[in-house]
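re: ur question from yesterday

yeah so i grabbed the chain u mentioned. its 99 aa long if i counted rite. heres the sequnce exactly as i have it in my notes:
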Amino acid sequence: MKSRLHLYTNTGPKTQGYILGEPAALLALAKALESAAKGVIGLETIQLYNSDGHEYELIIAADITEEEWQNMPVPYNKQANPHELNIVKIYNSLKITNN
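ran it thru and got these structure tokens back, copy pasting raw so excuse formatting
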């Protein structure tokens, strides 16, 4: 059975963000978060599903430099682009190479 999970980031300062999911999806997310936090590489991915049944990949990155944190726009900034993080660039280049 497909396990559904939705992520909604905060839309501004002092607003709420949400993680909404079925129990199996939340447990899989918890396992992936722990793996990324404790892993040597600091990156984990998980396949999840939206409520409409479409699959998506969630990339969880812990290996972010202090400089990247200092220069990273907040999620509700239209300029925010996680694809610019080194760990995400490396993951995407490896993924393309292996496909």
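noticed a couple things. The mean pLDDT is 91. also The radius of gyration is 15 Å.
anyway ttyl
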